[in-house]
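Cross-posting from the modeling subforum.

Setting up a comparison between two proteins and wanted a second pair of eyes on the formatting. Protein 1 (sequence, then structure tokens):
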Amino acid sequence: MISLDIGMSRLLTVFALTFAAVLTSCQVPSSISLDSGGMADPILAAAIRIPVGLEAPTWESVKPKSNIPGWDRQIDATYFSIQTSKKVIAITFDDGPHGVNTPRLLDMLKKRKIKATFYVVGDMMKNTYAPPIMRRMVAEGHEVGNHTVTHANLSRQSDVGLRKELQVAHDMILEMTGVAPRTMRPPGGAIKNDQKKLMLKEFGYPTIMWSVDPEDWKKPGVSVVTSRLLNGVKPGGILLVHDLHKSSVDAMPATLDALLSRGYKFVTVTELIMMDESGAD
């Protein structure tokens, strides 16, 4: 054959121009007219009207969607921390709400414009002081997570027992705040892999662990709690504290101020998960 059929030639040209446009990182005209013998080729001109550069969809818009209730991106079953290039962390408070310590803590967070995540226990929410504190958490931009009803060791629970621990606490949180919890933390971190899968599938809960544990529940002293948190913190980390204990809350002003001075930004656990870069190309 001396020459390609003109139709095939035009198709090959379309492919070459399309491929080149996709590869470029520069902004290019959204349409180009190719002149052949003094006349624009409408087929080629239409074919290369593709979004590229600033007009192209971002990678965020084409990330796979999750089939997990409440999530619009793929999520993992467990998080100890996330991978991120940003200096962000999530600070979490377990076992409340407490009638005195939690409001004090909320005052500290509000003063510093810090968002936190509270993993609350159903039995604690039964106290008469709990509803206004819970509503205040949400009103001031904090996240409320599920920490079961009785603070039970979930690894020893049947599937029926697990569902009850989570569902009752879930419903209590929703009733008091108007917002359903999106994550859970197993008391003491005791959980089995098949339970994690069940919770993710049925409740949409990823299991939230932690990257820094100051063991403040042992009440080692205010300065020790602060030191352990500051020594262990890294971008993308999840800090564990208990607002049930006065000494833990007493350690927060120095801890929070030091973290802010280091340039850390505080986000909720759900916000942190959405910033995970581990699956990015």
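Protein 2 (same layout):
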Amino acid sequence: MTTPNNRGVNLYLPNSIYLPDDLPQMLIRLQAYLTEISLKVNMREIGIYQKAEIYTGEIWFNEPGSLLNQTTLRQVYTFGAIPAGTQLLIPHNIVAINGVTFTHIYGTAINSVPLSLPLPFVDVNNVTNQISLFIGPVNIAINVGATAPALTSGIVVLEYLKN
């Protein structure tokens, strides 16, 4: 399977289609339109975020010595309160973690102020207000800085390729 280069390509479909009265010409036009629909739908990311492993629709690399045409998988994790100065471990349940290449590791959290924060969070004024996010062999680890406001809830999104 090859991946199309979509730079400069219009990814939107027309809102209407003209079909000629002549049956052979109509069939040609319908075939071309169905092909256009297939190509444009296949160029889009699947925007479904679930708490289960799903395909994203992203396809990565096609060059010698690299991962060939791999489709990204996505999982979403939610969490509750995390006090300041503590660590939360969330089991990720990703099978064969040694054969996984992460393409995106991100999330958001709400703290007790309340503010919405990106994960990881960097505070340029106070290093002990920072919140780290990393993936270990078994768990997602979220570390809340010692002087950071406690987190009340959040989400983590992992997107990855399996070898």
